[in-house]
Amino acid sequence: MDAQIDPRALFTLNYGVYILSTSYEEKKNGQIINALMQLTADPICMAACLHRDNYTTELVEKSGRFSISVLEDAVPLKFIGLFGFRCGREFDKFGECTYEIGESGLPLVTEYTLAGIELSVLSVQDVFTHKLIVGRVEKAQLLKEGTPLTYANYHRVKKGKSPANAPSAVFNQVK
């Protein structure tokens, strides 16, 4: 990393912890993300950032749609690990959790989830090692009240780490 970039400065930015899921030709997959933001209000559009080599990225590009599960602060680290540290090419992540299939056919993890959002892809932009995926919100539902998990609490309270492919893997260096 560039000596002029202090990862502690980047760690001051606010992030949430989410599961981004999709399906294509009967294949479901999902992964933990923290790079998600709302871009517009009318229509409501959001952007998510995924590593270009991830299986989820491949399926999102093929299907043209994805869902977001907003995780609650009480989610156990082991549950996050289901979607954060194993590849869906070799492991059925949805066989280990509670989920529903939305109106658009997308899987939506409901366990430890505060809200679910379904989106259609508007554009995909290459950004070095990652892809920025812009989507239009088609449906959003509140599943329960609670406190969303922040990425800072994932690291500080739960002592979680970021996979090498995560845009925020640099935070593993922050103590």
From TrEMBL:
Xref: Gene3D superfamilies: Electron Transport, Fmn-binding Protein, Chain A
Domain Flavin reductase like: 10-156
Keyword Oxidoreductase appears in the UniProt entry: yes
Keywords in alphabetical order: Oxidoreductase
GO MF term list: FMN binding; riboflavin reductase (NADPH) activity
Residue ranges crossing the lipid bilayer per the database entry: none
Entry keyword annotation includes Glycosyltransferase: no
InterPro entries xref list: Flavin_Rdtase-like_dom, NADH-dep_flavin_reductase, Split_barrel_FMN-bd
Source superkingdom: Bacteria
SUPFAM superfamilies named among the record's database cross-references: FMN-binding split barrel
The protein, known as: Flavin reductase (DIM6/NTAB) family NADH-FMN oxidoreductase RutF
Species assigned in the record: Aminivibrio pyruvatiphilus
